[in-house]
Amino acid sequence: MPPLTDNPSAFRVWIRTVLLHESIAERIRDEIDAERIEIGASMPTERELAEIHGASVGTVRLALRNLVLEGTLAGGRGAPKTVVRRPNAPSAFSEVLSFAQWAYAQGREPGGSVVDQVWVTANSSDVRNLRCATRDRVLLVVRTRTLDGEIVMLERARYPDWLGRIVEQMDPSLPSVTNALGEQGVHFTRADHSFAAVAASSEDSRLLCVPRGKPLLSHHRVSADRHGLPLENSEDRYLSGMLAIAVSSSEQSNPLRWVDL
Predict the structure, then answer these.
(1) Which residues span the domain enclosing 154?
(2) 14 in Cβ contact with 2 (< 8 Å)
(3) What residue ranges of the chain have pLDDT lower than 50?
(4) β-strand partners of 223
(5) How many domains does one find in the chain?
(6) Which of 60, 77, 139, 188 has the most beta carbons within 10 angstroms of its beta carbon?
(7) How far apart are CA 23 and CA 217, in angstroms?
(8) HTH gntR-type domain spans which residues (predicted)?
């Protein structure tokens, strides 16, 4: 957090410290990734690292803390740090939020076809996640999504009334609604995700050409803008064998939690 001060000098010092400790952490990641520091090796002391990187011990401590939190290093406060794994580069936020952006990042060609677009009455999930009233309407858009021309997923996106009226006017062949909305000033900046194994419904079976009851990977996503305004309440259902999710956790940082369906 930035310091609560009106002093520009103090703020500049804080910015320099943040940038420097992130730079040191990235240099250490690069060293581990290039195997110049091996898995299982002990890191130099904070004072030694401060001399190597030309920084204060406090700045180095912040860098090491970040590496411990992400699971690359292990070791308690003040204790020697050990390299426990190679650093994992996280996917960009846009790739996790947008199927099209993820596909482009993999060098694949995304596509899709709208099979249904209809105004429906908000259900309990919409009331909770879109913060709308029980009798409000939401726009439901159902699309099959493809990778390099092959169907891989069924997307059901639900938009609040004000945003649904914008989406309703868009070209149904757009590869990314999220990108198109960004061009109109609607920016998706945060999202909550949950994943589950679900059985294919009758509609899933028909649109994905799989037997009813076949296991699918469900990705439920609730997206919002930077002010916390809900934008989308969606569920994507992937065919088995098409996608896997990787998450790293440690005693210091665990982004996973179990939830009820």
Answers:
(1) 93-238
(2) yes
(3) 1-5, 11, 14-15
(4) 191, 232
(5) 2
(6) 60
(7) 37
(8) 18-87
